[in-house]
Specification:
Layout lengths: L3 E8 L3 H12 L4 E5 L6 H5 L2 H15 L1 H7 L7 H29 L3 E4 L1 E6 L2 E5 L5 E11 L3 E3 L12 E2 L13 E5 L3 H12 L3 E6 L10 H14 L1 E5 L5 E5 L2 E5 L5 E4 L1 E4 L3 E3 L6 H4 L22 E3 L10 H16 L13 E3 L5 E5 L2 H6 L4 E7 L4 H6 L5 E7 L5 E7 L3 H13 L4 H6 L10 H13 L11
Parallel strand pairs: 1-2, 1-6, 2-3, 6-17, 8-15, 9-10, 9-15, 10-11
Antiparallel strand pairs: 4-5, 5-6, 7-16, 12-13, 13-14, 18-19, 19-22, 20-21, 21-22
Length: 473
């Protein structure tokens, strides 16, 4: 069988795979993407990022959450109708995004091949299609972008139809009256708040406190308080030692002797790399204990010519970061004078209710590095737009370095936090100082205006600028 020649073969058609392929094709390379699903998109489109965020928005709409404090109304929707509408909206968004991805690949003349791929050697990929046909591809570079899947810890009865991981929870046939969430990571917190907004009695079991320690502690305190106000009960310092069926309920038993009974259980215990069957060990590509591919700072694996990007290499496992990793990997693979490094200013978005987003150093991280930092805060409760939309718990928190007056951290919690954070990200990227915000003019009324007042708050601690040339940078 004659091997087909390409410049780049990408294994996996998710967020990283699509963007890596398009980047290479943009510079004139012949590219093939191998995707085992009937449609591209990976976890980002089918089981993770977009479906969960779509369900969140539908949950907010159906529950009337955004209107409760503002108008004092109570919205009651049939629980069966809620599930039907949630699924309907999720599927509609998935269709639109897969159509966009297909159009993008076609526009860049990327060949999409459906089948299961395996590395024969560092430059050869064998693909078995659905019709059992075999094709062989030879390429100058191979990009592994196969994503990840939920880790299923032993001892959990996943054969029970009411025990879910973050993939199967999207296939629920009814809205549970109660839900136990095992694990307080990003996924666990997001789903806990989403179901609580819909009226489910939610119990979140997490060994450590606080949750999401990589984020600013003050912001997380506000997020947890907001989730508790929704009805989420946190059980810190606990873990589910066993999960067992007792009649109509699932019972989570903890070492302390406490038990939590729930209609459904959601297990969020991290993720594993989708590397089974790829033949990585035989070729020499190294992986860790959870099947995640090991890479260097340029996304090169232990085998020359083989690169990896996205969830398959582990943290931070964000769709936004995965796309950029793939672009950098491809530019490095072919020596393009473009996008040689991944920026260190990576924004984190946590789509809980309330939303949380962060970029740069937290107050705690700055202190750990010995940086003399000054903090500025502005509450949505003191902001006209915050008053209009009824968000009285939101906060914009800015971290400035005293010696340079530059912004080094931005943290938002509340309505549209994941959008709002990008203002801080842009100012940090351009080396802006506290004076940048003082001199900016913001639309009124907007939540963005909280940046100016957080800057004024910090200015009280920083004092006036001694060097006028630093103003407005």
């Amino acid at each position: 069988m004659t091997a087909e020649r390409f410049d780049l073969v990408v294994i996996g058609g998710g967020a990283a795979g699509e963007k890596g392929a398009a980047q290479a094709a943009y510079f004139g390379k012949r590219v093939a993407v191998i995707e085992r699903r009937a449609e591209p998109g990976g976890a980002t489109v089918h089981t993770g990022t977009l479906p969960s965020k779509t369900l969140r928005e539908a949950a907010l709409f159906l529950s009337g959450y955004r209107q409760r404090d503002l108008y004092g109304v109570s919205v009651e929707v049939s629980r069966d109708l809620e599930v039907a509408k949630l699924v309907e909206r999720k599927n509609a968004v998935r269709t639109l995004e897969t159509e966009r991805m297909l159009a993008n690949l076609d526009r860049h003349r990327v060949e999409l091949v459906h089948g299961t791929a395996r590395l024969v050697d560092a430059a050869t990929v064998a693909v078995v299609g659905e019709d059992a046909g075999l094709r062989t591809f030879v390429a100058d570079a191979v990009l592994l972008a196969t994503g990840s899947s939920p880790f299923r810890p032993p001892g959990i009865p996943f054969d029970d139809p009411d025990v879910h991981d973050s993939d199967t929870i999207l296939e629920i046939d009814r809205l549970p009256a109660s839900l136990a969430v095992l694990g307080g990571g990003v996924i666990g917190c997001e789903y806990a708040s989403m179901f609580a907004a819909l009226g489910t009695d939610v119990h979140l079991i997490e060994r450590s406190a606080p949750v999401l320690r990589f984020l600013d502690a003050e912001v997380i305190e506000r997020m947890v308080a907001g989730m508790e106000a929704l009805g989420v009960t946190f059980h810190f310092g606990e873990r589910a030692e066993t999960v067992s069926r007792r009649g109509d309920a699932l019972v989570c038993s903890m070492p302390s002797g406490a038990e939590i009974a729930a209609d459904k259980v959601l297990v969020t215990a991290g993720r594993v790399g989708n590397t089974d069957g790829l033949g990585l060990a035989a070729v020499g590509v190294e992986t860790d204990e959870r099947g995640r591919v090991l890479v260097d700072g340029h996304f090169r694996t232990s085998v020359p010519g083989v690169f990896a990007a996205g969830d398959v290499i582990g943290a931070p496992a964000l769709a936004s970061t995965s796309m950029e990793q793939a672009r950098v990997a491809v530019c490095r693979a072919f020596g393009f004078d473009y996008k040689q490094e991944l920026t260190s200013l990576l924004p984190y978005g946590v789509y809980t209710i309330p939303e949380v987003s962060s970029v740069g150093l937290s107050e705690e991280a700055a202190a750990e590095r010995g940086i003399d930092a000054v903090i500025g805060r502005a509450s949505f409760a003191d902001n006209a737009r915050g008053e209009i939309i009824g968000d009285r718990d939101g906060l914009t928190k800015l971290v400035f370095e005293r010696s340079t007056r530059r912004l080094i951290g931005c943290h938002c919690v509340g309505e549209r936090a994941t959008e709002l954070v990008h203002i801080g990200q842009a100012v940090m990227t351009l080396g802006g100082t506290v004076e940048t915000f003082i001199e900016m003019v913001f639309n009124y009324p907007t939540l963005a205006e909280t940046y100016k007042y957080a800057a004024y708050d910090a200015l009280a601690g920083l004092g006036p600028a001694q060097d006028p040339s630093r103003r407005g940078r």
